[in-house]
Specification:
By secondary structure, the protein is an all-alpha fold. Helices cover about 65% and strands about 0% of the residues. It has a two-stranded antiparallel ribbon. A hairpin with a 2-residue loop joins strand 1 and strand 2.
Length: about 270
């Protein structure tokens, strides 16, 4: 799978340049200070605060100050600091704040506001290897706005296939399209999407879980039972979401954690 390395923007809105003095502050208080410690260590924040005392307009320092609080699920505190990062470098951090609100805070209406504002102000972008349209669709999905979610994600997938080919599309884009079909009770098309996902990520237990659910809904109980047993073993072997910094700390929407017994009881 290809990962997009270039972020295209429709409007010219350059990311805030860092002055030589600010670079020196970052070097002193991040590179030679906070970065010598784990971000959960109190010294991390102390070094950053010293840098902010010298210049409180450095967006990167505010973003790094917020980091531990996202991991500790202290979302209001994290946002208090992260909002300053957005204030001083809006293009760099606005879309990222939308992602954090979506995956960490799970405030989908607020996340939508950030994503839509980013699109209006700066155009297209990627967050965590996914297009901003992907995240907009996830927010609509989580707000039970399934038709909106379908239109946004389906159009984005078609656009990517047309511009870059089918192999460009991230497996999670197709996974969530399958989830949307499932919520719309279109189990046949849901299975088609889950099969595309499993062609790329063969042991993806979450896709196997939901495919089994759809098979059962279509009356194919034997196939569903067999697949759920395979999926449960793959889950035990660690084959689930592999989204890096996000999924390591927060479950993604529809990520399977404890529900295996639930589906097993339905299929019996």
């Amino acid at each position: 799978m290809l990962v997009p390395l270039f972020i295209a923007c429709k409007k010219e809105a350059p990311i805030v340049e860092t002055t030589s003095n600010q670079k020196e502050i970052i070097s002193t208080h991040l590179n030679k200070g906070a970065y010598k410690y784990h971000y959960m260590d109190r010294e991390w924040g102390k070094h950053i605060d010293k840098g902010l005392e010298k210049d409180s307009t450095i967006a990167h320092l505010w973003q790094q100050k917020a980091l531990p609080y996202w991991k500790m699920r202290k979302y209001e505190v994290a946002l208090k600091h992260y909002n300053k990062a957005v204030k001083y470098d809006r293009q760099r951090y606005l879309g990222r704040r939308g992602f954090l609100k979506c995956i960490f805070q799970k405030n989908y209406e607020e996340a939508l506001i950030d994503f839509n504002n980013y699109k209006k102000e700066f155009g297209h972008t990627y967050e965590q290897d996914h297009s901003i349209e992907f995240w907009i669709a996830i927010c609509h999905l989580q707000l039970n706005e399934y038709r909106k979610a379908f239109n946004v994600l389906n159009n984005e997938i078609k656009k990517q296939e047309k511009e870059h080919g089918a192999n460009w599309v991230n497996y999670l884009d197709r996974f969530y399209l399958g989830i949307i079909y499932l919520e719309l009770e279109d189990y046949e098309n849901a299975i088609i999407e889950f099969d595309k996902v499993l062609n790329e990520y063969v042991f993806f237990s979450d896709a196997q879980y939901y495919k089994a659910y759809c098979l059962n809904k279509l009356g194919e109980k034997a196939k569903a039972k067999k697949l759920i047993n395979i999926g449960k073993q793959n889950y035990k072997n660690g084959f689930t979401f592999n989204e890096g910094s996000g999924a390591n700390f927060e479950p993604y929407p529809y990520q399977i954690v404890w529900e295996w017994e639930f589906v097993e009881s339905i299929i019996r």
